[in-house]
């Protein structure tokens, strides 16, 4: 009895898991660490066939027993949150195989450290690229890694050398004004970049906002008159954001400005000359503008001499990680918080989401993550809650994919876990009913619930 207790203490002395099966594949020893890792007590496991507890394709000790050989595997995922190095050895007695023993060394912390190091490498790389781009003052705040955005940058550099009118197209939230600023900076214009949002100005005020007005032009007007956006953009760049929303009556007047380079202030009788670079932007398709009765095609031909299209974020997932770390740093600094660690799962799920709101939506999500994450790592659940708010499901199953190819058996196991979870929820977590639907015994279902952490 004393010797048996000494052996039990020695086996459980280290933070390793041990399982022993006999030649009939029944569990005859289940260490304390094994019980903790898999969440199954000894009295539940002992005496059962090991294949009734775990899926046979995951049991290397079965192969070790049946094929009479030592088997070793590194970085095997024992449970959802535990990684182990695993080794199985057949047990010989009088030259016959009478069972097998498997040891599992917990390497979870090692794996986490490796992930953190890899994350930090990626973060340093992303931030280095961001800093390099920010040092290029002509492309300030435009963060990218994708080849398609490199082509956009080249287009901007080429177009900026001319004085041609430019129309920037792209979905809401891609940052069209940033690209207009890049064109303006690259052009080395002497004047300022003067923006005007055509969709934000009331129709009755649009003419005075664009052309300016003389003193006494209308009731309530500034007594000294007012410079318009065109005058403010002299020798610089006039940026008309959402030009598709420009009132139809103003389109005629602005077309004349582009043709004649002359205009009258509101209430004035002196014709003024002007010299500015025009950049326009719209989230509408060119074909939609051409077919619209609310936008003049002759004006479109004037403003769309050079078209620069900014692709949506979903078409350039390579940029998401760089943008994420750039804004994570800025937003953390804004709130006086330290930059928290983002695990691979979160990064991969961010990359997989379609981002209908583009960069603006990404910034919104990052801000939430910064505000509501209390630990040293960002709280992934904050992003899952956001997906639920916008009616999206998790785009990548938890821990399913990482930077390395996933084994087919791991994928199958994940699908199995998701299906069992669905059946349990559909049957209000009733084990008996769920086991009948799944066609397995209650002990097997209980074991799988423990195994998958459901």
Automatic annotation (TrEMBL):
A single GO molecular function term of this UniProt record: ATP binding
Residue ranges constituting the PAS domain according to the UniProt record: 3-74
A biological-process GO annotation: regulation of DNA-templated transcription
Lineage of producing organism: Bacteria, Bacillati, Bacillota, Bacilli, Bacillales
Domain Sigma-54 factor interaction: 142-371
Pfam families: AAA_lid_14, HTH_8, PAS_9, Sigma54_activat
Residues forming coiled coils: none
UniProt name for this protein: PAS domain S-box-containing protein
Organism: Jeotgalicoccus halotolerans
PROSITE patterns: PAS, SIGMA54_INTERACT_1, SIGMA54_INTERACT_2, SIGMA54_INTERACT_3, SIGMA54_INTERACT_4
UniProt keywords, alphabetically: ATP-binding, DNA-binding, Nucleotide-binding, Transcription, Transcription regulation
Keyword Transcription regulation attached: yes
């Amino acid at each position: 009895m004393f010797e048996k207790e000494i052996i039990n203490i020695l086996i459980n002395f280290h933070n390793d898991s041990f399982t022993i099966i006999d030649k009939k594949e029944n569990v005859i020893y289940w260490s304390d660490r094994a019980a903790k890792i898999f969440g199954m007590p000894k009295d539940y496991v002992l005496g059962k066939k090991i294949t009734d507890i775990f899926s046979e394709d995951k049991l290397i000790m079965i192969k070790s027993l049946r094929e009479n050989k030592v088997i070793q595997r590194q970085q095997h995922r024992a449970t959802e949150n535990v990684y182990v190095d695993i080794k199985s050895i057949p047990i010989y007695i009088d030259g016959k195989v009478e069972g097998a023993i498997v040891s599992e060394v917990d390497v979870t912390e090692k794996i986490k450290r490796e992930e953190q190091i890899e994350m930090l490498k990626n973060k340093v790389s992303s931030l280095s690229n961001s800093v390099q781009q920010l040092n290029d003052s002509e492309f300030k705040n435009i963060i990218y890694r994708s080849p398609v955005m490199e082509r956009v940058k080249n287009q901007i550099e080429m177009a900026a050398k001319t004085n041609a009118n430019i129309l920037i197209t792209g979905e809401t939230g891609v940052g069209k004004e940033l690209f207009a600023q890049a064109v303006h900076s690259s052009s080395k214009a002497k004047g300022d970049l003067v923006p005007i949002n055509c969709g934000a100005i009331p129709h009755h005020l649009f003419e005075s906002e664009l052309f300016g007005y003389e003193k006494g032009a209308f009731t309530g007007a500034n007594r000294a008159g007012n410079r318009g956006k065109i005058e403010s953009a002299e020798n610089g760049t006039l940026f008309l954001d959402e030009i598709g929303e420009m009132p139809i009556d103003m389109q005629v007047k602005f077309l004349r400005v582009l043709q004649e380079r002359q205009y009258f202030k509101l209430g004035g009788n002196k014709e003024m000359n002007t010299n500015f670079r025009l950049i326009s932007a719209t989230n509408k398709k060119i074909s939609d503008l051409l077919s619209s009765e609310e936008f003049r095609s002759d004006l479109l031909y004037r403003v769309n001499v050079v078209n620069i299209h900014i692709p949506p974020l979903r078409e350039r997932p390579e940029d998401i990680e760089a943008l994420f770390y750039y804004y994570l740093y800025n937003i953390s600094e804004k709130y006086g918080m330290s930059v928290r660690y983002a695990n691979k799962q979160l990064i991969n799920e961010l990359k997989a989401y379609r981002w209908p709101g583009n960069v603006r939506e990404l910034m919104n999500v990052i801000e939430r993550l910064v505000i509501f994450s209390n630990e040293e790592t960002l709280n992934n659940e904050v992003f899952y809650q956001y997906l639920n708010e916008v009616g999206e499901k998790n785009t990548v199953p938890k821990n399913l994919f990482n930077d390395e190819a996933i084994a087919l058996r791991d994928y199958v196991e994940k699908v199995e876990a998701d299906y069992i979870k669905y059946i349990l929820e559909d049957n209000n977590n009733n084990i008996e009913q769920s086991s009948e639907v799944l066609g397995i015994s209650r002990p097997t279902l209980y074991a799988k619930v423990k195994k998958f952490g459901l």
